[in-house]
Specification:
The structure is a single chain. The protein is of the alpha+beta class. The chain is 45% helix and 12% strand. Strands 1-2-3 form a three-stranded mixed sheet.
């Protein structure tokens, strides 16, 4: 069996196992979870389909299961569900650092994107301008920050998830309009 075919089969098996775990542990209907594979890519993607609401417990469970998967990527089809998932992931990242705090609200009329990025870095315990940068109205991760290890990487992860939860695209796609996050 060629190496790529073996990798694709392994990734597909991992995705099927993850899908089953999410269905049983998170109470998400199996028809909402599709395994997708891009041509020639070894990593399988688990896609959360549809726009039917999921509660925070289901989304949090989904996130925890996905976080444990090393070879399976994921996508969330519905924008509203994706934004809620990002907010939950950011809150979880802050909690893991012992920095439970409301996510700061970005207000374009009161601060620059660069200043907001610095606020996110401080919230997550990293030095200003060491992890995030403002690029054309977006907040992006500085590539060298990804190479950090241990607790330092947890802080980088925190900055990435908080920027995502605020509606920015840390890996380079410029967002339409950053969101204002409601703190509950």
């Amino acid at each position: 069996m060629p190496m790529l075919a073996a990798l694709l089969m392994m990734a597909s098996d991992d995705a099927a196992t993850l899908r089953e775990a999410i269905v049983s542990r998170c109470d998400i209907a199996p028809e909402r979870l599709a395994i997708e594979q891009m041509d020639g890519q070894a990593e399988a993607v688990l896609a959360l389909k549809g726009s039917a609401p999921l509660n925070d417990m289901q989304l949090d469970c989904f996130g925890k299961e996905i976080a444990g998967a090393q070879t399976v990527g994921f996508t969330i089809e519905d924008d509203a569900i994706s934004r809620r998932y990002s907010t939950l992931a950011a809150t979880r990242a802050l909690d893991s650092l012992g920095r439970s705090a409301p996510l700061p609200v970005f207000d374009r009329g009161r601060e620059s994107v660069a200043a907001y990025a610095v606020r996110l870095e401080r919230l997550c315990g990293v030095a200003p301008r060491s992890t995030l940068r403002a690029v054309r109205g977006n907040i992006e991760v500085i590539p060298s920050a990804i190479d950090r290890k241990g607790r330092a990487f947890l802080r980088v992860h925190c900055t990435i998830t908080t920027a995502s939860a605020a509606g920015f695209s840390p890996f380079g796609t410029v967002p339409e309009v950053p969101l204002h996050i409601e703190v509950r």
